[in-house]
Description:
The chain is an alpha/beta fold. The chain has 13 helices and 16 strands. It is globular, with a radius of gyration of 26 Å.
Amino acid sequence: MKKPLAVISCPIDTYSGYGGRSRDFVKALLKCKGEEWDIKILPQRWGSTKFGYLADHNEVELSKLLIKQMSEKPKVWFQITVPNEFQPVGEYNIGVTAAMETTLSHSSWIEGVNRMNMVITSSEHSKKSLVDSKWDFTNNNTGEKGQVAVDGKVKFEVLFEGLDIDKYNGEFDRNTNVEMIETLDSIKESFCFLFVGSWMQGEHRQDRKNVGGLVENFLTTFKTSNNKPALILKSHHASTSIMDREVMLKKIDSIRKQVGGNLPNIYLLHGEINDSEINTLYNHPKIKAMVSLTRGEGFGRPLLEFTSTGKPIIVSGWSGQTDFLRADLSFLVGGKLENVHPSAIIKDMILAEAKWFTFDEKLAKDAFKSVYKHYKQALVRGKKQRVVTKKYFTLQKMQDKLNEILDKNLPEFAVQNTFVPPVPNKIELPKRPVKK
Length: 436
């Protein structure tokens, strides 16, 4: 009996956020459908991000599933990417995406969604950014008016990006990642806030992660404090090059000059670090809390990873991270939705017509001060959030949810049987009587 062919097109071999999502998704799929389906992976690139993750991390089982091209039409086709790239290749087609961080998705993304049978998003926010997007148009040839919107026939499901509790275990070991530990030990402050993420395009305070706004708010919050905490930025701009690092340092220095005065220290961790080093960074005793005053997240993987430490998190109270960060167990900073600034627009992605989140300055300062001055109480929240994560948002729970989604939505596929001719029964001829 031949198993139904399932092919996943994804950037599984890249050092990217979508690469991490792809690896987790494929492993979950193998566990819940590996016995029933013949699963293959069609690897794709992801922009200019580095290739070769599987070999570098000895992912032998995943490597065995890689194919260069398909020899037959798959029963199930998965495509893990941005929606405008979705194509219906199989008998049943599923797009998997973190979608958009803003309130609005480009019309080409909606058209991509409508080419699929089902779309799986990473959060309720990313689902909403697609479902709520509607674009009016006029045909230049006929003058006919119409609208591009999500077809009601497309099924939508939300599948969170589960925490790998083997990689992010909440433990600190001084015998591993010695260089990282020595770097953090050398910081004079014993209380450090941590930010993890890219400093993206946009004028000051207009980048998507709002790193500029975070830096300025932190500096002004603790400018007059006697005992000042530090802020550690694990970040880069466009690459991990020395030139990129210099650009980052100049940005930080520019904000410091703008604020002026006796300011707290900011440290930049720049360059590539692996999962084990990230776990060490999260759990180092000097790292007391994570902070992100982001304008929008499709999900927010570093924030979920950090919950494994049981330490508090200060974060914008809007977009994908609110699916897993409880308001009573984290420090969700309020604010308002504002139009995307022209300097942050990315063609067909971050749109001028879209809105995203701007944090409230006072509320952010109050959250900083609350965590710093009343750390023991803040730590109680973090520890309770860790319990929630381990109960509801692990890779195992993600696997269970994926299995539920597929069983609920997929049709029963005709299983192609290999013809085997029947073996005829042996014919016994009657024996001739023996003459006496």
